[in-house]
Amino acid sequence: MAMKRVAATAVRAISSSESPVLPTTFSRELHASPGSKKIVGVFYKANEYAKLNPNFVGCVEGALGIREWLESQGHQYIVTDDKEGPNSELEKHIEDLHVLITTPFHPAYVTAERIKKAKNLQLLLTAGIGSDHIDLNAAAAAKLTVAEVTGSNVVSVAEDELMRILILVRNFLPGHHQVISGEWNVAGIAYRAYDLEGKTVGTVGCGRIGRLLLQRLKPFNCNLLYHDRIKMDPELENQIGAKFEEDLDAMLPKCDVIVINTPLTDKTRGLFDKDRIAKCKKGVLIVNNARGAIMDTQAVADACSSGHIAGYSGDVWYPQPAPKDHPWRYMPNQAMTPHISGTTIDAQLRYAAGVKDMLERYFKGEEFPAQNYIVKEGELASQYR
Amino acid sequence: MAMKRVAATAVRAISSSESPVLPTTFSRELHASPGSKKIVGVFYKANEYAKLNPNFVGCVEGALGIREWLESQGHQYIVTDDKEGPNSELEKHIEDLHVLITTPFHPAYVTAERIKKAKNLQLLLTAGIGSDHIDLNAAAAAKLTVAEVTGSNVVSVAEDELMRILILVRNFLPGHHQVISGEWNVAGIAYRAYDLEGKTVGTVGCGRIGRLLLQRLKPFNCNLLYHDRIKMDPELENQIGAKFEEDLDAMLPKCDVIVINTPLTDKTRGLFDKDRIAKCKKGVLIVNNARGAIMDTQAVADACSSGHIAGYSGDVWYPQPAPKDHPWRYMPNQAMTPHISGTTIDAQLRYAAGVKDMLERYFKGEEFPAQNYIVKEGELASQYR
């Protein structure tokens, strides 16, 4: 894949398509006090990889590509990957920062305690999607604004989910491991390799990512099901070709493949525990690019060992980075990766542009695109309540 | 994935949908002499995997699930995986077999010399698609009939190709290797991970598999190109959403991803040599589930090492099984597997049913489904000429 630097105009074009222009007469919801701001970004460090691609903006070294712009306006911009413990770089700045930017790929956990310490904090931005690294109730109580770049990587994640479905259904990894270990044993792969065609795939949660996944699944001639709080309108449902399942526990035993597409909330934490996994079909394949904590870690590992889950793939873990002894690293039939699906180069360019756009609006005291808000004026967005 | 035995009626249903009923008044093209036949099947051996799935019919042990049926009609049915050299099981039977069934996954190479020795041979059947393991000119000269189960695994291969495109574009394997080796380094994956959306994907050859791939690619919002001997009719082209490229060498530099979907013929053998690979975009990703010998083995390995090819994935090699020292096992950025894409359990059930159907017609002296023929009455099918 070519590694040309994307022209600044292209980044702007992405930004404006992701952030519809709002009427300029909106009231100032976010009171950015005038003057210089202290902005801290917490991203993953790229080290030797930083210079290998000029569009690699999502790392510490790339710093979202906004350093020059911020500093030229007199703001202070500190970027680090050192986020844990009392002596971390983040902790040093927590007391006087105004804005904290972080990503789900290397999240700065914003606890109630940190919020209490952060006397100047006004704005918490996610470079990407999701804010479960933040204690949202504490943020709401402190009247902070929490926002994400909604839509910035939904396509990235949906593509990645479809890849993982195919990897599991077609039993890709045992074949690849044969290649690198000098073996050739087609039978050892084929006895549990299937086509996706004709299988039943159900998504738990059907927001933007779930719908993009279903659209991409349509030509595969599967039986598509979705469970969500809200039924799609009949026209969209018909176009997507998926059937609504009001009762999650009634959908699960029908599915050959289950994909998790729900945010992590108090209601979904630990949703897939031992009992719920037992309700799935024996030999089920599960893909989870949503959040690791939606699953009971040990229950997933046990079900993979027993064969009740025949394959588990995802890029989300709890906690992140996953420790060396995380059981999902060692369970059979896993096709796991570190948290990567939403941080492709294409996604980075989109969420960097989205963060820049929100900072620009913050400095001017303008509204953000409505769909970006997670906490606004002391209230959580509806899907987080 | 559940491993219930598929009901015999389902296999029959698949068979009849793959093999449209022909008028019974057709002339006898294939003169099956009456009486008992000696049929030899060469498949891969499953060993300990044979009993793990009741639908695993494509292996030596499964024997396409037709032993009982053949033997009940007085035919002799020998099944083996031992196919190479003068002392092999196949060689023992070559002189008096009437029918040889084999698969591309573990091909019995049918040379001119073997054809000369096989005095009783009438029929060569591929359980699957492709007959490049057979010297087709020698088969035609000897007036043998060569046929495959056209369509039996086109969906299987197309799905697998899309999986491999995503694995390469999204840089899946380095992430998975981090997981199993206890690491966590998002940057080491992300610096060369992309979305498929917006990229240019070109297929070299656009027969049934190529079209199924393009249909599955459509919702990914790529720029789709195809090169083939024949331009699709405008309506189909418009529906599939791909642009015709008459000149292969003009298409190659436009493609971020190239997929090989052409049969192996005298014209395509070694088609991707050093010079042609040099015409591809630097950083191109190549997927080849067609045949290994379409590529110059060393030229591919060299281009992967230099980075001109940024990723290569496929399940076909030359020869097969790939020897332990095959360079594609060791080149960087490969996502190879043994030859597996067309031998999913679903595909096995379809091609087993298709072979049974052709044997039944052969015993009765009836025509095969027209699209199955590769050599008929001394002539090669048009795409093999």
Automatic annotation (TrEMBL), chains A, B:
EC class: oxidoreductase
Keyword Mitochondrion applies: yes
List of residues binding NAD(+): R208, I209, D228, P263, L264, T265, D266, K267, N289, D315, H339, I340, S341, G342
Subcellular location: Mitochondrion
Keywords, alphabetical: Mitochondrion, NAD, Oxidoreductase
PROSITE patterns in UniProt: D_2_HYDROXYACID_DH_1, D_2_HYDROXYACID_DH_2, D_2_HYDROXYACID_DH_3
Any one cellular-component term (Gene Ontology): chloroplast
Any one of the GO BP annotations: formate catabolic process
Start and end residues of each D-isomer specific 2-hydroxyacid dehydrogenase catalytic domain: 69-367
Residues reported in the UniProt entry to bind substrate: I129, N153
Database matches in InterPro entries: D-isomer_2_OHA_DH_cat_dom (IPR006139), D-isomer_DH_CS (IPR029753), D-isomer_DH_CS1 (IPR029752), D-isomer_DH_NAD-bd (IPR006140), FDH_NAD-dep (IPR033689), NAD(P)-bd_dom_sf (IPR036291)
Pfam family, one: 2-Hacid_dh
Subunit structure: Homodimer.
Family that this chain belongs to: Belongs to the D-isomer specific 2-hydroxyacid dehydrogenase family. FDH subfamily.
Protein name: Formate dehydrogenase, mitochondrial
Native species: Ziziphus jujuba var. spinosa
